[in-house]
Design goal:
homodimer; 202 residues; alpha/beta; seven-stranded mixed beta sheet; two-stranded antiparallel sheet
C-alpha cells in the first residue's frame, strides 16, 4: 500500500528487535529501536508511521500491537509455501536451514534434475524429481520459488515457476531472469558480495 | 585500482561464465558474454576494458588470459582464510557449503559461545569455543570473518574481529556495524529480501 521497497527492507529488523524484548515489555520508544539497530530516530518514526500511525508522546508504541501490525504488513501471518529448485550445495543448505520460518516462509520441498538426489533430506523434507515441479506447485498452491540451480538452467526454471503459479522468486543464480510483470524477482548474488570482500584484500 | 564496487560485483559472473565454457574455447566475444548473462554489450566491453584492456576486433578476448586477469583482480589467486562466528542455523549451513571456494574463500573454522557445539562439524571442519577466536585468527592470519551470530552479539563480535587482524567482514546479522575505516563490511540481509517477497504476496 504505497510503502517503498527501501522501507519494507527495514521492517524485519524492527520486528526482530521487538520480538526479542522481554515478555513484560509493554511499550517501546522509537529512540530505543533506533539506538539498538543503529538507525536514525526520525527514520524509525517515519517508517513506523506508515505501519501503525504514531507512537504516544513519552510512552512510545504498544509493543504487541506494533508486532501485530508489522507481521500483518509483511504478510507473515500466513506462512507462505515455498519450494527450492536445485538441491545442490546451496539449495541443500537452505533446505536444512530453519531460520526462514521466522520470516513467513515455509519451505516444503526441493526439486532436482539428478534422480540420485530424490528422497528425504536430513531435515526430513522430500527432494522430488524436477519433472514433478509443476504438478506439485499447482496442487499445493506454492507461491514462492527459490532458485539455486546452476545459472545456465535458471531461466528455464524461472519459466517453469511462472507456469506453476509461483508469484515471487528468490534467485541465487548469478544471472538476470525475465518473468511476467506480476512475478517479483529478488536477486541475491553471494558471489558478488564475496568478490567485494576479496578484492578489498588485494 | 579505481574500479567501482558496482563493476567488481559483476566480475564474478564473467568469471563464472568463462570458466564453464568448453575447454577448447579459445576466444570469446563481449556479445556472447553479454547475451549469456543478460547484460548490455557496451557494459561488458567497458567492464572488461578495466580488467584486461580491449578484445581484438572480430576475435574477441582470449578466454584463458581473461580468466587469469579476472582471478587476479578479484584476488582469487590466493585463497583467503575465513572463519565463521556463530555456528547456529545459518553459520552451520555455511560451514557445510562448498561453493565459497570457487570465489576465493577458504572457510577453515567456526566459533560459538555454546560449548556444546564445540567439535567437528559434518564436513570435518572444527567448531571452536568463541574464547579461542583472537588467538586462532592471529596465528592463522585469517583475513575474512563471517558474522552469523544473533544481532545482539554482532557488534561485539565485529570488535573482536577487528582486534584479531580481520580486514573484511561479511555480516549476516540484521544490524549496522561500526568498524575502523580499513575494515570492509559487506552486509547481507536475507530477512530483508524475504520481506520483499512476502509483502509482494499480501
Amino acid at each position: 500500500m504505497g510503502i517503498s521497497q527501501t522501507v519494507i527492507r527495514r521492517l524485519p529488523s524492527y520486528l526482530h528487535y521487538l520480538r526479542q524484548l522481554p515478555d513484560e515489555t509493554v511499550n517501546v520508544s522509537a529512540t530505543a529501536i533506533a539506538g539498538a539497530l543503529g538507525l536514525g530516530d526520525v527514520q524509525v518514526r517515519k517508517d513506523l508511521a506508515l505501519i501503525c500511525g504514531g507512537g504516544k508522546p513519552k510512552i512510545g508504541y504498544d509493543r504487541l500491537s506494533l508486532i501485530n501490525s508489522l507481521e500483518t504488513r509483511l504478510g507473515y501471518k500466513d506462512k507462505k509455501l515455498a519450494v527450492i529448485a536445485g538441491a545442490g550445495k546451496l539449495g541443500s543448505a537452505f533446505l536444512e536451514f530453519k531460520g526462514f520460518e521466522e520470516n513467513g516462509l515455509n519451505i516444503v520441498a526441493a526439486f532436482d534434475n539428478d534422480i540420485s538426489k530424490v528422497g528425504y533430506s536430513d531435515s526430513g523434507k522430500y527432494i522430488y524429481p524436477m519433472s514433478d515441479f509443476c504438478d506439485f506447485c499447482k496442487t499445493e498452491h506454492v507461491l514462492i520459488g527459490v532458485i539455486t540451480v546452476p545459472w545456465q538452467a535458471a531461466q528455464s526454471v524461472c519459466d517453469m515457476m511462472s507456469r506453476s503459479g509461483i508469484k515471487a522468486i528468490w534467485n541465487f543464480a548469478p544471472v538476470k531472469l525475465e518473468a511476467p510483470d506480476d512475478i517479483l524477482i529478488q536477486n541475491e548474488n553471494l558471489a558478488s558480495s564475496l568478490a567485494l570482500l576479496s578484492s578489498h584484500l588485494t
